[in-house]
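Listing 4. Sequential folding, example run.
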Amino acid sequence: MKEKYMNVYVLSVTLLIWIGTGCDNNNQQQIVISPPISQQQSTQEKVKADQLESSALTMEHIWHLREQKKHEEVIEKTEKFLKAKKRNEDTYGTCMFLVADSHRQLGHFEQAKTLFVKVIRDYPYAKWADPNYGDIPVKPQCDVGLQLVAERDRSDFPENSGDYITLAWKYIDKQRFGRAILMTEACISRFQGEARKQQAAHENKYEGRPPKLSPKPEENKEILRQFWALYDVGTCYFILGQAYERQGDLAAKRGITLEAGKFYDKAIKCYDEIINKYPGAQCFDPDGPWYWSVKQGAEDHNIVIKLHKRR
């Protein structure tokens, strides 16, 4: 009897040890499956940090990164900015333009081209609000971007009116008239509102008699500060007229009279725009050096076209 109880006791102890070991193994398996608490906290903190960064991102911050030429960051931050919450058409169009142009300046030309085309197709009426110049249409800027992509050009995007004029004259000299037209139209669409205001101020100040400017631009700083948009937009319309007039000349040489006439009509329209809306504009010729009246130049070319070129 004693041995029997002993056997039962041993069997019971063995069974308890086996059950305890099984429970321990189950607990160990659960620990392996679940990530450590510190890892869970780290993941949660990262998600919260990403959410906070997205909500803190602003268009001003992205533009600032662009000015600093931090193009990888522009791409990264803009994508986070767009994911943060629902955005309107203007914001999407502007953001995609910024990403596209960052890719261009990094040399990712195919990616840039795809994005520029997408903005033109999907957001043709998008604008960004410039604190200095009012609403700026995105599409003309994308057109400029595509031309720079075609040139495999990684240089800075033209930001001020003078940059557009430099590119436009360069393309005129190379007889790449389509690209010259795009540069001038982009400049006009961006700065014409300010140019009109400056023309009104110019008329009040000078009563239709433009000031005589020094052949040294540095001596005209104050006048140029007041009327830079007027001078540059007027110059852009003149370059635009030149692009059409020279295309008319080429068509006339080939004997395509009807086509030549259409180009000349467009040129006259551009020159008339200067005469009627921007008569105070002046343009600097570094070969002179001197400033010349854009209105006078427009009037002279209109006379030549009407008397000698149009038939």
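-- end of first protein; second protein begins --
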Amino acid sequence: MLTGGDFAHLRAFVAVAQALSFTRAAEALGVTPSALSQIVRVFEDRIGVRLLNRTTRSVSLTEAGETLLRRVAPAVAELSRAIGQARLYQERPSGTVRVHVFRSAADLYVQPILPAFHRAYPEVVLDITVDDEVVDTVASGFDVAIRIGEVIERDMIAVPLEPPVRQVPVAAPSYVAEHGLPAHPRDLLAHSCIRWRWPGRAQPYRWEFFESGSWFEVEVDGPLVVNSKDIALQAAIDGVGIAFSVERTARQAITDGLLVPMLEAWCEPFPGHHLCFPQQRQMNPALRAFIDTVREGASSTG
């Protein structure tokens, strides 16, 4: 049965057996002749068979050595090639990076970097899933995720891509003219609200507000439940009701007079989008390239 050190022993034996010289084999392996001789001798002692005949002037194979060389030399060569191929991954980014990204982050941080990333790293395949479901990144087979700070797994490294953000209720001027502005978040219970549901969850998201040093939730009601924040925002613009939107997303519609923000005194910032990935001693260069590219893109737009 092979042990952990057998590949090194076999590689040393094959080098000597093919060169029929400890000196030349040692040069090829980058060790001293005495160290190489000791490795081969330990291997012979462990398997209980003499593989090489040694004199002060020559090295030759025993019958057992010839048989072993014939059978293991191709395997040692193939293993060496395989290890060399694996080491290429340390030298240049290649292979597949599986990415899970929230919809709100895909347009901001992933879509803009794709052309430049492909030009810089043509051997990397990005397998991107755009989804708002909160999945276990590693268990689901992803290498990296981009999600908001409040739903990051505790054992993940999290790199912020933006300053804290906040959500604000917004509605069309026509809705406000007809129904008025709520004076307190709990007044939303008397309004038509456009609710959003996390994918994979049965109940709609409860709107979160901040008061007197702590967060509280309001379970709003209304005529529309969606799993797309874009649809919710457009429905608010169309006068269906009040939507709860990230301020940055609604900013242009607010500037254009299509939406009216409300209850801002109770809207506290929370951690925005983060790059999340498991801690690892040696990071795959392809994953490192993706992380660095996204961070650079975020800093240039932030």
